[in-house]
């Protein structure tokens, strides 16, 4: 295959700010990202927003069978060249990943590996984490702005700890796989990035997601207030705190994921 920079020049693929695109050219870095999920030889992989196909190349080199969803039709000819170079290994779907039922594209459970466009990354993640459990995917290896990545993996009592941390961790294992410097991208974004790796765990019994979301929304919506104030509007929440032995004068950022789960279980 020709160098990625040559492909981009030939097809005139300047990164689109409107689509939240930032391209990666470093083959060594892309190879490291592709190896985060583990052995992918023969595995199905979903990639969102492949752009000109840098990460796609790295995934194909692992032996994975890749389904790539790309909204930017300018990138389709470049991806078609990759498709021809890896017959039967790459399937390119033109469309908006926020509108496509990706689950229906697979018979088995794919790994999702993506340098996500910044403007859709968090909504896609929330959708994948909010689906029925056990999930339809095996693992998530995703690039985010560093600030978002920190919020996903944040431990209790840290500045970044909030609703996204609880959603990401209550039935998953989430870790920061690697930081990525802004200079690695073309064009360089204004912020640093990081790759997050998420693998599913067992869902705690007796807990409804909508209840957990309601509790965390109230608690973190007024995170500087004591729980007895922020949860006052959630019926039964104060009684649940008492039953679980959680001091109502604490604030949301001091309440661990298991404690939020315990309160939600009481209310479920």
Automatic annotation (TrEMBL):
Record CDD domains: AdoMet_MTases
Gene3D superfamilies hit by this protein: Ribosomal RNA adenine dimethylase-like, domain 2 (1.10.8.100), Vaccinia Virus protein VP39 (3.40.50.150)
Keyword Cytoplasm found: yes
Residue stretches making up the Ribosomal RNA adenine methylase transferase N-terminal domain: 29-202
GO molecular function term, any single one: 16S rRNA (adenine(1518)-N(6)/adenine(1519)-N(6))-dimethyltransferase activity
Pfam families: RrnaAD (PF00398)
Name under which the protein is recorded: Ribosomal RNA small subunit methyltransferase A
Main location, first listed in the record: cytoplasm
Gene from which the chain derives: rsmA
Record-stated family: Belongs to the class I-like SAM-binding methyltransferase superfamily. rRNA adenine N(6)-methyltransferase family. RsmA subfamily.
E.C. number(s) listed in UniProt: 2.1.1.182
Domain of life per record: Bacteria
Catalytic activity field: adenosine(1518)/adenosine(1519) in 16S rRNA + 4 S-adenosyl-L-methionine = N(6)-dimethyladenosine(1518)/N(6)-dimethyladenosine(1519) in 16S rRNA + 4 S-adenosyl-L-homocysteine + 4 H(+)
Cell compartment(s), UniProt: Cytoplasm
Residue positions binding S-adenosyl-L-methionine: 22, 24, 49, 70, 96, 115
